[in-house]
TrEMBL record:
The active site is at K164. Residues 160-287 form the 6-phosphogluconate dehydrogenase C-terminal domain. Pfam families: 6PGD, NAD_binding_2. The keyword Oxidoreductase applies. Keywords: Gluconate utilization, Oxidoreductase. The gene is gnd. InterPro entries: 6-PGluconate_DH-like_C_sf, 6DGDH_YqeC, 6PGD_dom2, 6PGDH_C, 6PGDH_NADP-bd, 6PGdom_BS, HIBADH-related, NAD(P)-bd_dom_sf. This is Decarboxylating 6-phosphogluconate dehydrogenase. GO terms for biological process: D-gluconate metabolic process; pentose-phosphate shunt. Transmembrane segments: none annotated. It comes from Streptomyces klenkii.
Length: 291
């Protein structure tokens, strides 16, 4: 089939390639003319035969919103927009409604797999009406990993991004657990080769996993991670997971702690620990360290 793809960065560029390898036609647009097949969104829409399917793969938030707004002006009734970015699930219903007024269908799709997706396939979690999902199915089939799993119609509009958000919450907590275990192993004198302990865990253990394999890759590049600063950014999905947990009164201690650990990583000195030190000093005369 024919697909319009907006956003040809790290994810979109490789997805274009994987979909083409499966024999489909992809016309890609990106603000960077070096990456794009056409020079504008208008050209993209004009070069697709109707009914069209346009996949949006741009950063969540303002960039996705403005792309969907523009597509709403350019597309025709019967066309479909797929949001494959890491959008907040609450935006999906709004987008479905706005486009729905114009007769344009909407499907949300969480995509996992990062830079490895071109070769390994992308795990897909999508939400929307069955009829709209069916129209996009050949593209989902081209992107998904080989094998029986790796793609799911998770439910109605928003369900795909909600499932991907929870996946990312789990990702936070799993990474935090590997990171904490690694730090403890590095700290003690009795363990002389932490990297080899991690490597040995890749087979036979309860915790063998792709994240563990990637941790071993990272340690092979830089055995004690000396080249890195202990600073971790976040793109929002961990926060949204915690917000959803609060809205639904579901306890998420591990995911919440892993999100807060990232916040702590961005402080050179901890203001709250200054207060703890000050209070211990006030009530107990305990020693403090000065700057
Ligand atoms: O499943 C994936 O392929 C990843 O989760 C991917 O979606 C991305 O790397 C995260 O969004 C990073 O999220 P943070 O910046 O919040 O760590």
């Amino acid at each position: 089939m024919e697909l319009g793809l907006v956003g040809l960065g790290k994810m979109g560029g490789n997805m274009r390639e994987r979909i083409r390898r499966a024999g489909h036609t992809v016309i890609g647009y990106d603000r960077n003319p070096d990456l794009a097949d056409v020079s504008s969104l208008k050209d993209l829409v004009g070069s697709l035969q109707g009914p069209r399917v346009v996949w949006v793969m741009v950063p969540a938030g303002a960039a996705t919103q403005s792309t969907i707004d523009e597509l709403g002006e350019l597309l025709s009734p019967g066309d479909i927009v797929v949001d494959g970015g890491n959008s907040r699930w609450t935006d999906d219903e709004k987008h479905a409604e706005e486009l729905g007024h114009k007769g344009i269908g909407f499907v949300d799709c969480g995509v996992s797999g990062g830079v490895w997706g071109l070769e390994n396939g992308y795990a897909l979690m999508y939400g929307g009406d069955a009829a709209n999902v069916a129209r996009v199915q050949p593209i989902f089939d081209a992107l998904k990993p080989e094998g029986d799993f790796g793609a799911v119609h998770a439910g109605k509009v928003g369900a795909g991004h909600f499932a991907k958000m929870v996946h990312n919450g789990i990702e936070y907590a799993m990474m935090q657990a590997f990171a904490e275990g690694w730090e403890l192993l590095e700290k003690v004198d009795s363990v002389t080769d932490v990297r080899e302990v991690f490597r040995s865990w890749q087979e036979g253990t309860v915790i063998r996993s792709w994240l563990l394999d990637l941790a071993v890759n990272a340690l092979d590049d830089d055995e004690h991670l000396d080249k890195l600063r202990g600073y971790a950014a976040d793109s929002g999905e961990g926060r949204w997971t915690v917000e959803a947990a609060i809205d639904n009164a579901v306890p998420l201690p591990a995911i919440t702690a892993s999100l807060f650990a990232r916040f702590a990583s961005r402080q050179d000195d901890s203001p709250q620990m200054k207060m703890i030190a000050a209070l211990r000093n006030q009530f107990g005369g305990h020693a403090v360290e000065s700057k």
